[in-house]
Fold this protein.
Amino acid sequence: MGNTLREMADNIEDATMLDAERGEEIIAALRAAAPEIDPQGTLTPDRLLSTDMVTDLIDRVLPGWAISMEGTASRSHGHWTCTLRMSGVRDNDAYLGVGHGPRLPLVLLAALLKATAARPAD
């Protein structure tokens, strides 16, 4: 696969778009690490640019996890931070997935990739 999940996350954080080749690589890596992410095999690279779709993927891989998003909604100068952690209630939970960047869906995806990389094996 070439890149690890964490490297893939780092590579998309500053991106404003996701080309089909990189999207397919990310999907293949996520399917290998978390088969529950795409049980019907219908995930496509263009769907990774949808905030709703990436939020659904987070729910499949990390059900019940807290998602925190903060940023500036600007197509040309947006800056987002997304954190994923096991609980939004306790202040001492470790943040297992943190993404930064200009496009919210890609920031969410980067956080998911990092959290999936840190997730203990079943």
The chain has a mean pLDDT of 87. The longest strand covers residues 66-72.
